[in-house]
Structures are given as C-alpha cells and as structure tokens.
C-alpha cells in the first residue's frame, strides 16, 4: 500500500509539472492523441545531450505576432537583448512530442528547447535551477506556459538535465544569450579596421533616397532594428540618402544587399569606400 501511494504521489507531481498550452492545443481539437501530458515510458540516455548552441538566427515571421490565449493578450518582445527573469519553470513531454511548435518547427522532447510567452522566436536562454544551481541553454521555439505562476516550459531533456523531472516545477533564473548577426560583426570589424588603418576599405549599402528627411530617418530606424546595422544619412542637393554600414567584408555586404533588395528595395546598391 505504501509503495502504491508513493507511485500515486509521483504521478501527480509529474502531471502537475507538465506544460499548460493554449486552448487550440486541447484534446478536443483532435490535434493530440493524449488528453494529459506525461513523461515517456522508456526514455533514452539523456546524460550526453548537449546544450543548445547559441548562434545568430533572424527572428522568424511565424510565431512572433501579438496574440491572445484564454482571453489574455500577449505582446511579443521586439528584441530579446538584456532579458532576465526569475520565476517558476515547468516542462512538457509526450503529448506534444512530434507536433508543431509556435515557430512552425517540430517539437522534440529529447532536444534542448523551451517555450516562453513573449520572447521573440527563436531565442537562446540560459536556465538555472535555483534549487540545485544546475544550468542549461535552451532554444526558445514555442509559446507557453499559459499558467500565471510559470515563466517557461522546458523540454523533457532540459528538465532532466536541470534535475526537475520528479518535482515537475522548479524556481529558475532565465538569461538571454545574444549572438551578433554577420552584418553586425562586419560592422564591428570595419570600425576596428578603420581605427587601426585609415586606408581600410569599407562598404555601405544605399537603400533609399528622398527629399523628405523625416521619411528617410523613419526608414533608417526600421532598417537598423530589422538588420542590426548602423545607418548614415547623406545630403546632396536637398536629397537625403539612407546608407547602411560600414561593413568590412564584401561578401557579407553583397549578401545583405541581396536581402534588402528582396525586401522591396530593388534599386539598392553597394558603395565602396577607402
């Protein structure tokens, strides 16, 4: 009887810790074969699973729009830089395994991933269990948990490495890890090269020209935010020109030019300066 009681308590803890997802993800929608989330019956050895490796990824078009769940509105952060938070973490497992995340990817409970209500997707976050100081890095590619007292859902694998499977939840600290874009690195390299060598070659992309300085300034803010590039505005005969840069690598500058042209600025061109 004592053994049965212990098993019952453990099962209740596991279910209590699993993620609370949005209404469209309930069993009644027919999307999931399980009504309740649970741990896998036989999990592989997860001791050698590596943390998610932070790298620069542009924020996806899917999953980064403001939304509502259960009558509550959520505003997605435009940027993750500098984000840190302390609160309660939970985990999610088999019910969602193999189904699409809010990012349009496939949820793998054996990968180091997580869900957050408002961080832009994807983001990389260091999660530290404040009960035991165990720490992992996860890639945020999903939305949730839609439970007022919780700030993050981590995958089954991440929960295993954090030592929180048995308890279901744990107090944690979240810290975003930011990686500079190739364009930003090129800008930094150009700045250093220019400081060290007055003859260094740099590249700018001229995006737009207009007689309206205000319009050019607004567009400059948009491009700086979207592409993590610095900008400058030059004036010639009352025409204001928006130029992005400098960049020291011509290949990166060329790829950025292609990207900007694909955004509807087909007349953009590269400027080479010494």
Automatic annotation (TrEMBL):
Residues 48-58 have a biased composition (Basic and acidic residues). It is a lipid-anchor. Residues 26-36 have a biased composition (Polar residues). The keyword Thylakoid does not apply. Lytic transglycosylase with a strong preference for naked glycan strands that lack stem peptides. One of its GO terms (biological process) is peptidoglycan metabolic process. Residues 1-21 form the signal peptide. One of its GO terms (cellular component) is plasma membrane. Residues 197-273 form the SPOR domain. It comes from Shewanella mangrovi. It holds the Pfam family SPOR. This is Endolytic peptidoglycan transglycosylase RlpA. The gene is rlpA. Its EC number is 4.2.2.-.
């Amino acid at each position: 009887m004592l053994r049965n009681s212990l098993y019952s308590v453990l099962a209740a803890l596991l279910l209590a810790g699993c993620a609370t997802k949005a209404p469209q993800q309930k069993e009644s929608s027919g999307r999931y074969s399980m009504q309740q989330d649970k741990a896998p019956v036989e999990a592989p050895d997860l001791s050698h699973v590596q943390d998610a490796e932070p790298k620069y990824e542009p924020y996806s078009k899917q999953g980064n729009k403001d939304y509502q769940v259960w009558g509550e509105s959520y505003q997605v952060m435009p940027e993750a830089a500098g984000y840190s938070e302390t609160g309660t973490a939970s985990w999610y497992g088999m019910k969602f395994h193999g189904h699409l995340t809010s990012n349009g990817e496939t949820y793998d409970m054996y990968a180091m991933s997580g869900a957050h209500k408002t961080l832009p997707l994807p983001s990389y976050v260091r999660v530290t269990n404040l009960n035991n100081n165990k720490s992992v890095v996860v890639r945020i590619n999903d939305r949730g948990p839609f439970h007022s007292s919780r700030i993050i859902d981590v995958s089954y694998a991440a929960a295993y490495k954090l030592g929180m499977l048995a308890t279901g939840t744990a107090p944690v600290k979240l810290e975003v890890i930011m990686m500079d874009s190739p364009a930003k690195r090129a800008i930094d390299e150009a700045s250093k090269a220019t400081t060290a060598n007055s003859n260094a070659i740099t590249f700018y992309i001229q995006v737009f020209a207009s007689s309206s300085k205000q319009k050019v300034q607004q567009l400059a803010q948009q491009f700086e935010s979207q592409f993590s590039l610095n900008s400058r505005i030059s004036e010639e005969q009352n025409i204001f020109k928006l130029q992005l840069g400098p960049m020291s690598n011509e290949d990166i500058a060329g790829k950025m030019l292609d990207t900007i042209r694909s955004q509807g600025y087909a007349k953009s061109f590269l400027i080479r300066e010494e």
